[in-house]
Amino acid sequence: MTSGRATTPVSTEARRPTAIRLVVSVLRRRPPMGSVGLWAVLALLIIAPVTCFLLLAVSPRLLGQGPQYFTLRFIGQAFQGNTGQGIFNSLWVSTTVSVLAVACSTVLAWLVSRTNVYGRRMWTVTMWALLLVPTWMMTLGWTDVLQPFGVSQFLGLNSSYLYGQFFGPTGIIVVLTVAATPFSYFVVSAGLQGLGSEFEDAARIHGASRFLTVRTVLPIIAPALLSAFAISFAETMSDFGVAFTLGYHSHFPLATYTLFSAISNFPANFPVAAVVAVVLIASTVPLILLQSHVMRKRTFAVLSGRTRAPRRRELGPLARVATTAGVVGFFAIALGVPVLGAVIGSFVQNLGIYSSTPVHLTTTYYEQVIHPSIIGKGLGAPLLLSNQLGFIVAGATGLLALVLARRLVQSTGGWSQRITDVFLLGSVAVPGVVLGVGYIFFYNLNFITSHVIDLYKTLPLLALALIATSLPGQTRFMAGPVSQIQPSLGEAARVHGASRFRTWRTTNFPLVSRVLLWGWLLTFTKTISELAIAQVLYPPSQEPASVTIQAYLANNALGTGTAMTVITLVEMFGAIVLALGLYRVVTPRGWRRIGWSEVSG
Amino acid sequence: MSTGEARRAVALSLRQLSKRFSDKTALDSVSFDVEPGTFLVLLGPSGSGKTTLLRCLAGIERPTSGTILIDRRMVAGPDTFVHPEKRRLSMVFQDYALWPHLNVRRNVAFPLARSSRSTTDKRARVEDLLERVGIGHLANRFPNQLSGGEQQRVALARALAADVGLILFDEPLSNLDSDRREQLRIEIATLTREAGATAVYITHDQSEAFGLADVVGVLNHGSLVQFDTPESIYLRPANAFVARFTGVAGEFGVRVIRARGGGRYDVELPFARGQRIEAIALEELELGSTQSLFVRAAGVTLGPTSELCGVTGHVIDVAFTGRGYEHVVRVGPEAQLSKVFSTSRFERTSQVRVSFEVSACLVMRTPTNG
Amino acid sequence: MNPIRKTSARRFRFALVALAPVVASLSLLGVPSGAAEPTLVVYSAQGYDSAAVTAFNHTHPGFSVTLNDNSTGPLLQQIQAEGNNPKWGVLWVDGSTAFAQLDSQGKLVRGWTPKVSFNKLGLANLPKDRSYIPTGLTATGALVWDSSQMTAAQLPKTWADLLKPQYKGELGMNDPAQSGPTYPMIAGLMNSLGHYPTSKNLAHAITAGEQFLLALKKNGLVVNATNGPTLAAIEAHQIKMAIIQSSAGYGTELTTYPKMRVAYLNPVTALPGVIGIDAKAPKSVQSEAKKFITWLLSPAGQHVMKTGDAQGDSLFWPVLNNDAPSNSLIPPLAKVPMQTVNPYVWGAQENKVNAWFESNINNG
Question: What share of chain B is helix, strand, coil (3-state, %, to 5)?
Answer without folding.
Answer: 30, 35, 35
